[in-house]
Amino acid sequence: MHPGKASPILEVEGLTLSFGGIKALTDVGFEVAPGSITTVIGPNGAGKTSLFNTISGFYKPSVGRIRFQGADITATRPPERARLGLARSFQNIALFRGMTVLDNIKLGRHAHLRTNVFDALVYFGRARHEEMKLREEIEERIIDFLEIDHIRHMPVSVLSYGLQKRVEMARALAMRPKVLMLDEPVAGMNREETEDMARFILDVREEWGVTVLMVEHDMGMVMDLSDHVVVLNFGQVIADGTPAEVQADPEVIKAYLGSGEVSELRQRLHQALAVEA
Amino acid sequence: MSLEFDWLFLAEIMLAGLGAGGLYALTGLAFVMIYKATRVVNLAIGEMLMIGAYLCFGLATAMNLPMWLAILVAVIGSGGAGALLERVAIRPMLGESPIAVFMVTVGLASILVGVVELIWTSEPRRLPEFMPATPVMIGEAFVPSKVFYGFLVAAVLIGVALAVFRFWRGGVALRATASDQQAAYSMGIDVPKVFSLSWTVAAMIAAIAGVIVGAVGGISSTMGVFGLSVLVVVIVGGLDSVLGALVAGLLIGVVESLAGGFLGGEYKLLATFLILIVVLLVRPYGLFGTHEIERL
């Protein structure tokens, strides 16, 4: 899948975000093709989570715009973005801790329920009943799909880290999103849990037709899953392309290994030692 | 203790205590609502109650509205004032340390007292009578009518509030916001609206409590002290627990009444704060509170 072929589902254009005098993002731009798995990588502090928070609408960019399915959503508030079909998970799991797994997932449908009392009254009756049934079916499918049936009535706070991440994903899926944003979906997971999650991410795309945009540090997984990789460093996009293209990019290597090639660094070290000796 | 213990006296004191406790529970509910939604420890809850009572007083006396209309308008007006306070004083503090926000509510309390004293002076006033005057007899025990009807109103309102939390979607939104604001916001829950709504409804509940407290004991610019007992109630019950506010409200009401009836009025607050100290030592997060809650 090549970005730019179909019209992108999500476009970020010239995004600049600053906190006081510090620029977290500078002129960041990229596109997410529908049905793709797009990953944002970059060293710690590169601005990946700031970028995610701006796309969710938590932060307001000082310059730039965000388009979702062609429509400008830069000024749209987060709840409205959720309704349009943007769902996300968080780097430090953000589940509703006092509630059970099932309650957490059910809250995913909140975005689509009528907010107005009058709407709710009109909406009452048959149509509402059918809608509710459909939702329940979807929730059952999600629970099945993510293999969390056995824990559905457990409070989320007692679950292992890996399972909590899975519940968070289930809750996001229950919002029936068009784009699923995952902030470090496998951070802190062991090999087995990581493989499970990778499989789920692929299936979300294949079976549910949901576009995935993620931030991830696990390079093996990023390179295996992604169609498209965007590399951030110090708040700027330094590379953008297929995993193979990005891996070969000298700018990327520099960002991850410090200035200069490994051999060059080793050489400098030897020189320094020689002077001392 | 004398051989013939006066059981009737005990019963009457307990009933009076439950009456006061109902109002503690009701105001505690208003406090918990704000705390749950916004994580703000609102020290101005007693003053919000006072504002409701004075609004009602002003409407009934200066504008000559019939009492029922004065109460209605005062409750709605207080709701508006609650929304305004949240917007101008609390919302800008979003993300600041809890102590800073706490201090803002302390300031808010002084401002509200000042406003009342500017308009109505610090002279104590009486609300026009609006409850049936005939005392109510429960068995042989005598209950003052205001205490009885006050308790009834508190019980009904608490029942309604509990049903709303349980069955209305707004209640779910409130619970989700209480649990994780960021997650709630990203899931289509309008968190700022939940903030605003919780302050509005809490101010309305406090206003109703204020009108009843004022009807029982008169109104004055120091009636916000009632909020001090409410603070004890919610700390004992657990800051984020509606059930806790109810149980602790009744408990403190009864204990205060017992201490006042058998030991003398000056022991009322002593008993209250003794309970507070014991609870803080044994269960710092309150009887029903969430364990991870920050301590004051």
Automatic annotation (TrEMBL), chain A:
Query: What Pfam families does UniProt report for this protein, alphabetically?
Result: ABC_tran, BCA_ABC_TP_C
- The signal sequence is none
A single GO CC term, please?
plasma membrane
Q: Superkingdom of the source? A: Bacteria
PROSITE patterns the UniProt entry points to: ABC_TRANSPORTER_2
Q: Name one GO molecular function term.
A: ATP binding
Q: Residues in domain ABC transporter?
A: 10-259
Q: Which PANTHER family match?
A: ABC TRANSPORTER ATP-BINDING PROTEIN (PTHR45772:SF1), CONSERVED COMPONENT OF ABC TRANSPORTER FOR NATURAL AMINO ACIDS-RELATED (PTHR45772)
Q: Which keywords accompany this UniProt record?
A: ATP-binding, Cell membrane, Membrane, Nucleotide-binding, Transport
Supply the InterPro entries for this chain: AAA+_ATPase, ABC_AA/LPS_Transport, ABC_transporter-like_ATP-bd, BCA_ABC_TP_C, P-loop_NTPase
Which Gene3D superfamilies does the UniProt entry name for this protein?
A: P-loop containing nucleotide triphosphate hydrolases
Q: What is this protein called?
A: ABC transporter
Automatic annotation (TrEMBL), chain B:
Q: Where found, per UniProt?
A: Cell membrane
| Main subcellular localisation | membrane
Q: Which residues cross the membrane?
A: 13-33, 40-60, 66-85, 97-120, 147-168, 194-219, 225-255, 267-286
Q: Which UniProt keywords apply?
A: Amino-acid transport, Cell membrane, Membrane, Transmembrane, Transmembrane helix, Transport
A single GO molecular function term of this UniProt record: transmembrane transporter activity
Does the record's keyword annotation contain Transmembrane helix?
yes
| Stored InterPro entries | ABC_transp_permease, BCAA_transport_permease
Q: What GO CC terms are in its UniProt record?
A: plasma membrane
Tell me the CDD domains matching this sequence. Answer: TM_PBP1_LivH_like
* Topology within the bilayer: Multi-pass membrane protein
The Gene Ontology biological process annotation of the record reads: amino acid transport
Its family remark reads:
Belongs to the binding-protein-dependent transport system permease family. LivHM subfamily.
Output the PANTHER family linked to this UniProt entry: ABC TRANSPORTER PERMEASE PROTEIN, BRANCHED-CHAIN AMINO ACID TRANSPORT SYSTEM PERMEASE PROTEIN LIVH
What protein name does the entry list?
Inner-membrane translocator
Which organism does this sequence originate in? Thauera aminoaromatica S2
